[in-house]
Amino acid sequence: DAGVIQSPRHEVTEMGQEVTLRCKPISGHNSLFWYRQTMMRGLELLIYFNNNVPIDDSGMPEDRFSAKMPNASFSTLKIQPSEPRDSAVYFCASSPGQPSTDTQYFGPGTRLTVL
Amino acid sequence: DAKTTQPPSMDCAEGRAANLPCNHSTISGNEYVYWYRQIHSQGPQYIIHGLKNNETNEMASLIITEDRKSSTLILPHATLRDTAVYYCIVSFYNQGGKLIFGQGTELSVKP
Predict the structure, then answer these.
(1) Which of A27, A31, A32, B109 is the residue whose CA sits 20 to 30 A from A102?
(2) Which residue of B91, B97, B103 is in closest CB contact with A97?
(3) Which of B101, B103, B105 would you mutate first to test chain A, the one with the most A CBs within 10 A?
(4) Of all residues in chain A, what percent carry a pLDDT higher than 90?
């Protein structure tokens, strides 16, 4: 298996622009998570989905952020409009969601820089 | 959710055992202890988890005290590639997998 796939790996954009981050979870996994990591705040859970349905979005910082999971093999995290303080590494993770374990498998991350 | 306390940093000599402590004094009866690590610039990686019994896998051993208020992750023969930030997390089993990461312990394995 290729693991969790994220694209792009690096994104540089200007303040005010729309940014879309993409994630392909491991095939067969039922849960998908979006995290953000910064030096100041560490690794923060933004939102997670179970069977394509958003379960908890309490970590989404504000209305500029939105996440979708139109099917079991694809999710997006959108920031519109972007701001310099959104600069961070964004990780996507998936888990089988089986009763035996909640192990999460993380992707390589997208490093976002907003100028 | 229960919170965890870990030392911010530790050193270990290559080839020696690395023992990483974690306090979780407010853990509830149905919360599991998970350990993940993050090697620089990579996504976090699952290591091991347990409820109350000691656990061992190919990567590490997890020792949980009888009162479950603390645990220790043991890397039996640390290598330079084990240099990473190690996170101890407590979470309800099968709670949709929601994990809250703290600051972790930065382990430096030195030659």
Answers:
(1) B109
(2) B97
(3) B101
(4) 74
